[in-house]
Structures are given as structure tokens and as C-alpha cells.
Specification:
mainly alpha
Length: 116
């Protein structure tokens, strides 16, 4: 019987991988099993939405990946508060988007100047 798994090469943040190894060890599993479970959930949820002609999950995923801004995704989903957007992201098991490192650094520098 042929194997149903394949190896692939990807890149992951070093700190994230370290933290994932800790979580995997605490759960008596592997990083590979964690990745498979999360990726399976993402793909199956996306495909279900597509099959039902419901683009809500695709919109949330695009927001999570930084491809849509909060105002655009809120308009697409017909919601009027960032609190509701946060709740939807949590229910969809998607992380909030991260700002680019340079933008985050700029904000931190501004806060330091204001505090100092």
C-alpha cells in the first residue's frame, strides 16, 4: 500500500517552531501532528464555505493573512464593530493579523518617545 503522506519543505519562524515543540511535547505528540490538525481544519472549513457559496471564512482568512484590512472585512461580513470581528476570528480558529516588523518597531519607538 502506498503512503498517503508526502514530505514538503517550508519555512517557519524559529521562535514559533521552538514554542510549537514545547506544545507538542506537553501534548505527547509531534509538531507534524499539530500542523496536520491545524491545516486540515483550515482546508476543510474553507472548502465547506466554498461548497456552500459562503465567502465568510475566505474573507476572515484573507484578513488573518493581512490581505484585507479590518474595515474591508467588516464591510464584507456585515459587522460594525472590531469586537465582533475579533469574536469571529476566534470562532474561526484564525489568528489576528500581525503588523509588519518595521511598523511594529515604529510604534514601539513612538511610545518610548512619548513615555520618555
Amino acid at each position: 500500500m502506498a503512503s498517503t503522506t508526502v514530505n514538503f519543505t517550508g519555512a517557519i519562524d524559529r521562535d514559533l517552531l521552538k514554542r510549537a515543540k514545547i506544545v507538542a511535547a506537553k501534548c505527547d505528540t509531534s509538531v507534524n501532528a499539530l500542523l496536520n490538525a491545524q491545516l486540515r481544519h483550515l482546508v476543510e472549513t474553507y472548502e465547506t464555505g466554498e461548497a456552500l457559496h459562503n465567502e465568510n471564512y475566505a474573507s476572515l482568512l484573507a484578513f488573518s493573512l493581512g490581505r484585507l484590512d479590518d474595515k474591508t472585512v467588516m464591510k464584507k461580513l456585515g459587522i460594525d464593530s472590531e469586537e465582533n470581528l475579533f469574536l469571529l476570528m476566534t470562532q474561526a480558529h484564525l489568528p489576528m493579523p500581525r503588523l509588519p516588523e518595521a511598523e511594529t518597531r515604529k510604534m514601539v519607538d513612538t511610545l518610548h518617545r512619548l513615555a520618555g
